[in-house]
Design a protein that fits this description.
heterotetramer, A: 85 residues, alpha+beta, five-stranded mixed β-sheet, 27% helix, C: 152 residues, four-stranded mixed β-sheet, 34% helix
Amino acid sequence: MTVRLLYFAWVREKLGRTEEVVTLPATVATVADLMAWLAARSDNDQEVFSRVGVIRAAIDQTHAQPSQAIVGAREIAFFPPVTGG
Amino acid sequence: MTVRLLYFAWVREKLGRTEEVVTLPATVATVADLMAWLAARSDNDQEVFSRVGVIRAAIDQTHAQPSQAIVGAREIAFFPPVTGG
Amino acid sequence: MAVRVQSEDFDISRESALLTAGRTDIGAVVTFTGLVRGVSDGTNLSAMTLEHYPGMTEAELSRVEAEAHARWPLQASLIIHRVGTLAPGANVVLVIAASAHRHAAFEAADFLMDYLKTRAPFWKKETSADGHGSWVDARESDGKAAARWGAD
Amino acid sequence: MAVRVQSEDFDISRESALLTAGRTDIGAVVTFTGLVRGVSDGTNLSAMTLEHYPGMTEAELSRVEAEAHARWPLQASLIIHRVGTLAPGANVVLVIAASAHRHAAFEAADFLMDYLKTRAPFWKKETSADGHGSWVDARESDGKAAARWGAD
């Protein structure tokens, strides 16, 4: 499965990129799986994606829980808790 | 004691006057006393001032309870419950 | 803190800008605007006329405003109430509460309206489409709304 | 119902007038304006920069607005949120709720702000007077404020 990943705020700054396209192994089924898979890529990724209780995700522009399945997703975003308003 | 009385809204309309100056006997000590004294003047006054639970009063531009003393008042107003806003 | 009773209309942006101009300690501005509705209890209205008690109105609005400042940390506030004859859709009342934080601004504006409605000496007379005039009855719900805030 | 994400400023009166124009069924309009404060946790700020997630922002604001309409009888509503770099004192967000009655308008505007703060994908970065930039942490109090309204 190929999916576009988007990053915002300090997640974007720490990773040093705004977005990327990744091809995932079939074992990556949920948001939590994806975060673990991303964390294993580099020390920098580890620093961001190991923060499971902090980093939030959205699948196709809708908030998603860590347990949520990513099957069929076109776009998955990772970001800190929102601070608008 | 001489005091200016002011009337508003349907109190004003029913009495047919906006204000008047009255000289009160010493026995009229409270707002309730004043309403009873006014009610005794005519059928029209009776119709308005006998409605003790409805008509509100203000002494010198501050809301007043029926039991409140009127001694020293310069201006006493009678009106229906307010409906602004 | 300011209260005004006037026949003229008001401009929300202008009044809000006057309260916040040159300040950077205000994080939240809540405004409430009350308007004349065209239908009252099923009757079409042609106009709403507001009578008030000059002198006491300003005094009572100032007391209500002072009470809000005593209860919430407000940076600024404003109450404008129109009087005279107004058409359906017209502005009647403007309340503004400005604070560092939003909950104080929301609660204070809500409080100002509840207290204004039960304390300020204004009386509404509706004129129906057929020309019949009738004084608006006070609503029990307004008394209950004001009682939410506890004794003062 | 409308949501807008923009870098330009907004005008409260203009937006409010657009919602109420030609209508006589609206008795209450509540507006909330959020502004950039000049001091944050004791630090003087020179600017606030708002980043957002284009597409999701509009979608999420529309969901929040639809939720408010499902909970209260609203005649009209509006959410405008600015993005980009803003100076202290500048407007950040405008929420308007219009209803026949004031309590619905107050509650809906309060709700819209609470939900917007915990749902809409905006992130604030403060720039201090000495040029240091830091991302604003989410406040636990905002989560508690949103939880006041119960599950949706």
